[in-house]
Description:
Belongs to the TRAFAC class OBG-HflX-like GTPase superfamily. OBG GTPase family. It is an enzyme of class 3 (hydrolase). This is GTPase Obg. It holds the Pfam family DUF1967. The protein has helices spanning 171-178, 227-230, 254-268, 290-301, 318-329, 346-352, 371-378, 385-397, 400-406; strands at 5-11, 44-49, 63-65, 85-90, 93-97, 103-107, 113-117, 148-155, 161-164, 196-201, 207-212, 239-245, 276-282, 306-309, 358-362, 365-369, 414-417, 420-423. It is of the alpha/beta class. It has three domains: 5-155, Spo0b-associated Gtp-binding Protein, Chain: A; 161-329, P-loop containing nucleotide triphosphate hydrolases (Rossmann fold), CATH 3.40.50; 346-423, GMP Synthetase, Chain A, domain 3 (2-Layer Sandwich). A six-stranded mixed β-sheet has the order 10-11-9-12-13-14, with helices on both faces. Strands 3-1-8-5-6 form a five-stranded mixed β-sheet, with no helix packed on it. Strands 15-16-17-18 form a four-stranded mixed β-sheet. Helix 6 (346-352) runs antiparallel to helix 7. The longest helix is centred in the middle third of the chain and has 15 residues, at 254-268. The protein is elongated and about 105 Å long. The chain starts with a strand and ends with a strand.
Amino acid sequence: MFVDIAKITIKAGDGxxxxxxxxxxxxxxxxxxxxGDGxxxxxxxxxxxxxxRTLLDFKYKKxxxxxxxxxxxxxxxxxxxxxxxxxxxxxGTVIRDTDTNLVIADLRKNExxxxxxxxxHGGKGNSHFxxxxxxxxxxxxxxTKGQQFEVNLELKLLAxxxxxxxxxxxxxxxxxxxxxxxPKIANYHFTTLTPNLGVASLKNGxxxxxxxxxxxxxxxxxxxxxxxxxxxxxxxxxILIHIVDISGCEGREPLEDFxxxxxxxxxxxxxxxRKKQIVVANKMDLLFDKSIYEEFKDEIESRGYKVFAxxxxxxxxxEDILNYCSQLLSQIEEEDIFDDEEYYTDEKAVKKSxxxxxxxxxxxxxxxxxxxxxxxxxxxxxxxxxxxxHFQSVLENTGIFDMLRKDGIQDGDTVSIYGFEFEFYx
Length: 426
């Protein structure tokens, strides 16, 4: 079963709590503090695996949790760190934050890894809080929680060339001729229900991957037919082979077919309409009036496309198409299918989820909470001045300082964000 979309919940491990303990030594107040630190929680790591082809497993298991860090122990013994949880996904999987729809990671290479949810930090044991005036601290720090949120997994197949066109124009037949793929072929619409991949090998030794995308129809970008479900799989391709039924045996006009499919590509993703496209007039063996092809070719080439005549029944023109594809592929560089603004950053997440942020005032301290804000806090190095300045800039740019002002905060008041405290000055 081919599954290319899934939604799951991931939960990194919580940090273990610091320990309150004392040594039993003579002449040492309460034996002296000896509480160890808690261990860090395990991370959630996604890893691309070439052996996987579908997201089927994620349809049955919806929640993934990493191991918690162990609590600290006496005698200054640290708690064990939680084990990371490695989740394997097919190469080509895109991971998005469900709340913001921003791209967290695009796993395009085999064994590529990314930490998506960070484990909580272990709490400090009471031995850390000993001072000259506090020889026997009877408190320790709790561990912080691991990050938890929903992510959408979206598989976009890795192929150099994508086959597009209306149903029953000969895409599956073309794939079966030029590769060892064995797609289902029949003389009715929507024979192909899942994308098929095949490797085309040329006589000169070159090879490339071709993806046969299930038949598109008018309205596909709005969810009509099957096209909406599988258009994402041609987003990575470098070249599109647009196959048109030149014979008109389906009762459609070839030029209208060409224009309708391109309109659907543009409405789904404007970048698709800019991809290099080769137009193939198929079923030439069924065309009795060759002037129809010549008129079609003149019109399409006047728009800047290269047109080939083909018959999958007689294999006419197939080799020329493959050779031209190979030539074009050598000239096209791989590019990222996402723009910079589509990628996840903690700052963008906080900005898009300000509704999630809550401010409460307890004993004169303004406490700020919010899942995305907690994630941002993990990325700040509080020992680095530039990192601190960036953190303050985020709080200002995302409107959090405005929210504090609205709640009546004054200069010198204390602000607390998940245990990190600072004084507010406007």
